TrEMBL record:
The keyword Transcription regulation does not apply. Residues 1-21 form the signal peptide. The keyword Signal applies. GO terms for molecular function: oxidoreductase activity, acting on the CH-OH group of donors, NAD or NADP as acceptor. Keywords: Signal. It comes from the Eukaryota. PANTHER family: 3-HYDROXYISOBUTYRATE DEHYDROGENASE-LIKE 1, MITOCHONDRIAL-RELATED, L-THREONATE DEHYDROGENASE. This is 6-phosphogluconate dehydrogenase NADP-binding domain-containing protein. It comes from Ilex paraguariensis.
């Protein structure tokens, strides 16, 4: 199920491969007749396969899956990336190595220079990074920073094209995400009425 979901997505999600690896590890180290294997027995029944045999059948390489997905994808051409800090820089440069066109923004100038030296395109604001992207990744720390880069002065949402996806990787509350969804739907639904497809 994890791998099927990963194959359906046009943008590879590392968490799916982590979940798959943990499932394999759990299967490999558990005993089939153990009470701890109850979940595995349920999934075997649902999926109609022997999970341990399937896990041992071949080695799974998440890097290879990401390459296969990105090679087949013609819908993701440009990625905007806001927040090139400790985690964001590594994520953005990995996307560059995977042959995506990535325009990045960060408030810290030396980080932007380092990103440009790695092959990324520099953005001067969240709005500039968001122009003509298929996916916008926001990797800032918290709700206040997410609010600022999305809706503040020169915020990303003002330039984000209709149909683009936002991946918010910040530490935020479920209420913030629900509110964000409503605000985005309101904005983009009104754009749909102004510019019908």
């Amino acid at each position: 199920m994890v791998l099927d979901m990963a194959k359906l997505l046009t943008f590879p999600l590392p968490l799916l491969s982590v979940a798959h690896q943990q499932l394999i590890a759990g299967c490999s180290h558990g005993r089939r007749d153990d009470d701890d294997a109850t979940l595995l027995k349920v999934w075997e029944k649902v999926l109609g396969v022997n999970i341990v045999d399937a896990a041992n059948a071949e080695t799974y390489d998440p890097e290879e899956l990401a390459k296969q997905i990105s090679a087949k994808s013609d819908s993701i051409n440009r990625i905007g990336f806001i927040g090139l800090g400790a985690m964001g820089f590594g994520m953005a440069t990995h996307l560059l190595r995977s042959k995506f066109c990535v325009r990045g923004y960060d408030v810290y100038e030396p980080t932007l220079s380092r990103f440009a030296n790695a092959g990324g395109l520099r953005g001067s604001s969240p709005a500039e990074v968001s122009k003509d992207v298929n996916v916008l990744i926001v990797m800032v720390t918290n709700e206040a920073q997410a609010e600022s880069v999305l809706f503040g002065d020169l915020g990303a949402v003002s330039a984000l094209p209709s149909g683009a996806s936002i991946i918010l990787s910040s530490t935020v509350s479920p209420a913030f995400v629900s509110q964000l969804e409503r605000r985005l739907q309101s904005r983009f639904c009104s754009l749909c009425f102004k510019y019908p497809f």
